[in-house]
């Protein structure tokens, strides 16, 4: 009879064959979450501090150097909390303008990339023309970032607003900030936008967006007969390691939160700044 070779799990501490170790690790994580006052929306508030979803592009030394640089930059620039769907105003330096600065107000439709390369895009309709500006979050020309209205949307990507009616992307440049009560959950705007008649920039009716009203009904009869409401990303339901590959790891979030709190405490103790870096409106931090 041939010998059977037992190959240990790569993550032995969470392996189902070792329930004692998995239970102990779970209790340790829960204890750390209570000590650090973990923010549940950390991946949405601080997407720039997440690891790259492409595993072979992760470099621990590069991530550590960028992490320290991002914390230092946050001590000089107040970066408020905002989500995709929030109304944000950004003031940048512009040497060719008389006031030497430019202020743009719009709805945040995207937040992408990690580290120092993190970008967010604002959209507004000006004189009937849709304008989108992509900003690097850590661009040194940014003077000020303001969250005029803090809220979320049904989707984490609002790129479909480019094909929506103009009223969903029109905001006053003189809009007054709306204060968010500290300690209360960030509201989710349940609005569902209506798209203009096709053709569109993308096949929105085939994507799993919750914030579009009647995209399938507006598509042409040819597409209705051919696809039968089949979504492009239906295959994700059968991807068994999707969360493992692209999801945010709780251990990494706790590690980042601990470093942010330590850095903030050191700067406050030394008297360099009194600015809060680790904060959340919902958690009243």
UniProtKB/TrEMBL annotation:
Localisation per UniProt entry: Mitochondrion
Superkingdom classification of source: Eukaryota
InterPro entries: Ribosomal_bL19, Ribosomal_bL19_sf, Translation_prot_SH3-like_sf
Single biological process term from Gene Ontology: translation
A molecular function GO annotation: structural constituent of ribosome
Keyword field: Mitochondrion, Ribonucleoprotein, Ribosomal protein, Transit peptide
Gene Ontology annotations for the cellular component aspect, listed alphabetically: mitochondrial large ribosomal subunit
Any Pfam family matching the protein: Ribosomal_L19
Family under the similarity heading: Belongs to the bacterial ribosomal protein bL19 family.
Name of the protein described by the UniProt record: Large ribosomal subunit protein bL19m
Species assigned in the record: Necator americanus (Human hookworm)
Upper taxonomic lineage: Eukaryota, Metazoa, Ecdysozoa, Nematoda, Chromadorea
């Amino acid at each position: 009879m041939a010998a059977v070779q037992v190959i240990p799990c790569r993550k032995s501490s969470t392996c189902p064959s070792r329930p004692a170790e998995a239970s102990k690790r779970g209790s340790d994580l829960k204890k750390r979450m209570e000590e650090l006052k973990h923010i549940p929306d950390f991946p949405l508030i601080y997407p720039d501090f997440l690891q790259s979803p492409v595993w072979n592009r992760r470099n621990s030394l590069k991530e550590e150097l960028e992490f320290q640089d991002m914390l230092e930059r946050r001590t000089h620039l107040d970066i408020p909390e905002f989500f995709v769907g929030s109304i944000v105003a950004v003031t940048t330096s512009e040497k060719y303008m008389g006031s030497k600065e430019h202020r743009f107000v719009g709805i945040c439709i995207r937040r992408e990339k990690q580290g120092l390369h993190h970008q967010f895009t604002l959209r507004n309709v000006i004189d009937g023309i849709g304008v989108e500006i992509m900003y690097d979050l850590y661009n040194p020309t940014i003077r000020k970032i303001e969250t005029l209205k803090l809220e979320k949307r049904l989707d984490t990507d609002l790129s479909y607003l480019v094909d929506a009616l103009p009223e969903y992307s029109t905001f006053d440049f003189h809009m007054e900030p709306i204060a968010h009560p500290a300690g209360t959950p960030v509201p989710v705007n349940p609005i569902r936008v209506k798209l203009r008649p096709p053709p569109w920039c993308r096949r929105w009716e085939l994507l799993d967006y919750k914030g579009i009203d009647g995209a399938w009904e507006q598509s042409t009869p040819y597409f209705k007969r051919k696809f039968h409401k089949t979504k492009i990303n239906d295959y994700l339901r059968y991807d068994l390691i999707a969360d493992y590959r692209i999801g945010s790891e709780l251990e990494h979030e706790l590690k980042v939160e601990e470093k942010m709190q330590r850095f903030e405490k050191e700067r406050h103790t030394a008297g360099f700044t009194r600015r809060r870096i680790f904060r959340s409106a919902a958690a009243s931090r």
